[in-house]
Amino acid sequence: MFGWEFPPHIAGGLGTACYGITKGLAKHDVDVLFVMPSASGDEDQTSVRIINASDVAVTESWTDVKEMNEFVDKVSFLKVSSGLVPYIDPREYDSMSVRNERMSRTEYEDFKINYGGKYKFSGKYGANLMEEVARYALVGAAIARENEFDVIHAHDWLTYAAGIAAKRVSGKPLVIHVHATEFDRSGENINLRVYDLEKMGMMAADKIIAVSNLTRNIIINRYGISPDKVITVHNAVDFHGFRQVNANRGVPEKIVTFLGRITFQKGPEYFIEAAGKVLKKYSDVRFVMAGNGDLMNRSIRRVAKLGISDRFHFTGFLRGDDVKKMFAYSDVYVMPSVSEPFGISPLEAMRSNVPTIISKQSGVAEVLKFAIKVDFWDIDAMADAIYGLLAYPALSGMSVRCGMEEVNALKWEKAAFKMKEVYLQAINEWKINRKN
């Protein structure tokens, strides 16, 4: 299994999902070798064996040198002068690069011939990301030669090239897991480099796991993939060892929370507009935007222009216990995503007894009945829903009670069972093709 991050060091929902998946698979007797670019050594390995790609020597070249050349030619290697925030928008990634050009032939030769050496991966989402993706593919091939396994599982576009390299070296079937697409992250202004890598992975895969029917439809319609090999397996949430946090929030007003990356995909501007409408009718409330992203400064300016700065707070990026504390402070949680392949945070909020509002344009809307659903663009409906949960205790109480029962039924063990079935299908079809 190729991933990019794993708890406790995470920058978003992907690492959390990988953790839950591996724990669920272990309960179904699936042994997982989890490869990541840069392991810290403190990852939980009770259900998985971590392979640190930074410790693996590259002993031979890409199986097909011509194809590797073509792959590298499609990738621009960017040198970035400063660290970028996690999951930065691809357009922002381009604008912040010091030089946006293909690396010179000399640089490429240095990159290509460094066999027998080890690459020190950052494992981050910022400087030289595309270069790390390509190098990760070379390491993926080396790992495939050194280990015994039945199937390859690659998570999101960062790891697809590594999955393809492992497949070509070993001949084993490849399953890719689409947690988000470039259309989710960037709307119609997609980064073609990322799109090409995504499509390359989808075309090479024997089976594709989509985290929702919403994502499945994008894969089929926007990438031209056959519906026969795309299977939806909804995400879940791991509440093992979960404990409620008692937090003294220090303010008498109720609190409405947005928690996520402050980027186009997550819809922060719709949350701000809805907050402005609510505050005209209900003054006993504060709004909190917890996260970082390329729309942070624009969001701060909009809050100031609306004249609600004294009731609106920006916390920056939160992780671990700080997230739990934020839910403990909250009376309402809102996820107004423009396009959300799934969305784990509403499940975490509901498990924390927080009534939740989600956009209809989210995968999690397919599995939740007791979250209030609105179109991301309908700020009037969003404001009405927030007002209703703040002003009517009976509505809020029902949402908390029913929501808790609902999320407790969404377990990674069930999702992992479906993933194992996908593995078995891929392996059986691979065996049949080998005979033929």
Produce a short descriptive summary:
It is built from 16 helices and 14 strands. It has helices at 13-26, 65-73, 90-95, 105-112, 129-146, 156-170, 182-186, 192-204, 213-223, 268-281, 296-306, 321-329, 345-351, 379-391, 393-408, 412-435; strands at 33-36, 49-52, 79-80, 97-99, 152-155, 174-178, 207-210, 230-232, 254-259, 285-290, 312-316, 332-335, 356-359, 372-374.
Topology of helices and strands:
Elements: H1 13-26, E1 33-36, E2 49-52, H2 65-73, E3 79-80, H3 90-95, E4 97-99, H4 105-112, H5 129-146, E5 152-155, H6 156-170, E6 174-178, H7 182-186, H8 192-204, E7 207-210, H9 213-223, E8 230-232, E9 254-259, H10 268-281, E10 285-290, H11 296-306, E11 312-316, H12 321-329, E12 332-335, H13 345-351, E13 356-359, E14 372-374, H14 379-391, H15 393-408, H16 412-435
Parallel strand pairs: 1-2, 5-6, 6-7, 7-8, 9-10, 9-12, 10-11, 12-13, 13-14
Antiparallel strand pairs: 3-4
Helix pairs in contact: 1-16, 5-6, 6-8, 10-11, 10-14, 13-15
